[in-house]
C-alpha cells in the first residue's frame, strides 16, 4: 500500500488539485458550479482561510489556499468541501454512475477521485508559477483561447490587483500570446 506524505506548514499557501471521479465533467453544468460555491462558502465559515487563486474546469479544480497562522489543516478542508458538494448532488438526485465494490465498501461516492494533489508553495517564484498555471489552465485544456475568456477563474481578481494585464497570454486582436513555460510543473500539479 502506498504511503502518502503531505506537507503541513502552519499559515502556509497550498496548491491543490481535486479531480472528479472518472473525470466526469460535473462542472460543465452551471448549477453544479453554484453548488460548489455554496459548499466552499459553508466550509470557509466553519474553518476560515483565503482562496488566493482558483480555476474550475469541467472535471477538475485547482486552488491556491492560504491558511491562517498556526493552522495547517488543508486536508480537513478538502474533505469537508468534497462532503458538502457531494451532499448537494445527492439531494438533487441527478448524478450516479457505476461505482466499484471497493468504493462501496469504503462508503465513497461517485463524485470525487479518492485522493487529491497538494503542493506547498515555497517562495514568491513558486507562487507566481502556480498563479500562472491556474490562470492559463482553461487555455491549456482548449476550453478558451485566452485566460480572460474563462469565467470560472480568479484571473479577473488578479487583473484588478495589478498582477496581470487583461491581455496576458492573450491571442485576441491578432496578438501572439506569450505562453508560459510549465514544463517544470507538469508532473507536479496532479492532472
Description:
The chain has 191 residues and is of the alpha+beta class. It has a single domain (13-188), classed as Alpha-Beta Plaits, CATH 3.30.70. It has helices at 30-46, 74-92, 101-105, 124-140, 155-160, and strands at residues 13-19, 50-56, 60-66, 117-120. It has a four-stranded antiparallel sheet, with helices on one face. Helix 1 crosses helix 2.
Would you tell me the overall average pLDDT? 88
Radius of gyration: 17 Å
E-strand count: 4
- What is the spatial order of strands in the main beta sheet? 2-3-1-4
Which CATH architecture?
2-Layer Sandwich
Q: Can you give the helix content as a percent range? A: 25-40%
| Tally of DSSP helical segments | 5
CATH homologous superfamily grouping: Transposase IS200-like
Short account of what is shown:
GO terms for molecular function: sequence-specific DNA binding; transposase activity. It comes from Coleofasciculus chthonoplastes PCC 7420. This protein has 191 residues and is an alpha+beta fold.
